[in-house]
Each structure stands twice: as structure tokens, then as C-alpha cells.
Amino acid sequence: MGRFLSTVARAFWAMLPAYVPNNAAVLLGGDRPIDGGRTWGSNRVLGDGKTWRGTLLGTACGLVLALLLNRLRTYVGAPTGLSVPRFGRSALTLPLGAMGGDMAASFYKRRSGRDRGAPVPGLDQLDFVLGALSLTALLSPKWFRRVFRLPVLLAVLVLTPLLHVGTNVLAYLFGLKDEPY
Question: Could you tell me the residue range of the domain that residue 13 belongs to?
């Protein structure tokens, strides 16, 4: 496998536990909003889109996926020659950080007077990545430095917006989202 494809595959593998939680939260969420309907000024703190059930189940899906990837690692790495990371503490920090990054973006949107679902290009595509990478760098620094070297980080920053747009369009087409962004 060429160096470029190997880097992209490693980036995708390493970020999968962070990519899944927000999508899972859309599918499995609902129920009581985290902010309990409270406002700050004239706007909601987070809004109805951030629920306890979605956050817990989204994080759990990312964690379970990381554990599954640990089991599949040998079967993927050996035949392809691809060096894919094993998830330790990062099995939890990546999905939890992803959910936290998304919540931070919602908080920012509410403070700036934007409605739920209103687009903020750049932030919408990378909020969860920044949350996942930040929490992982903080709580699992050795793993972070070993896995997210500069080429992998660059691949994540290019790959993520493309995946984000693609999954949002699919969710819109399947009626899971009200807007395709």
C-alpha cells in the first residue's frame, strides 16, 4: 500500500471512534435535552438537539466501535501491511471528546443567535474533531503523539469535511436530518 493511502487509512481508522458518535446520537437520541430547556439571555444554552440519551448512546457506540477495532486490528493489519493503532484510553476519549466538541459548537451557535441546524462552515465539519483530538491529547498524550503525527493530522483535517458533507447529505436523503449540511 502506498504511503499516501496508508496515511489516509490510518487517519480514518484512528478517527472512526470519533466519527461515529454524532451520527449515532442523531439515530438514537431524543428525549430530554441536556440543558433542560434553560436559556442564557434570550437563547437556549444548547437546544433540543443535544440530549442525554443521544450523548450517552453516541459515546457508547464510539467506545464499542473502538473495542471492536481492537479485535479486528490483527486481521486488518497483517494482510494489508497497514499499521493501525490499538485503542487504549483513547477508546473513550475520542468519542467523548467528539460529543463534547459538538456540544461546544452548539453552545457557540446559541450564543451567537443562530438557530438549531444553522450552518457555520468549518466549525460544523471540525467541531467534533477538535473536541476528540483535544481530550485525547490531554488524557492520553503518549498515544496521541504516536498516532497523530503531522501527516495523519493533515489527512484527518482534509478527510473529515468530505466525510461530514457526505454523511449529512445521506442523512438528509433518508429523512434523518432537516437540512443537508
Answer: 3-173
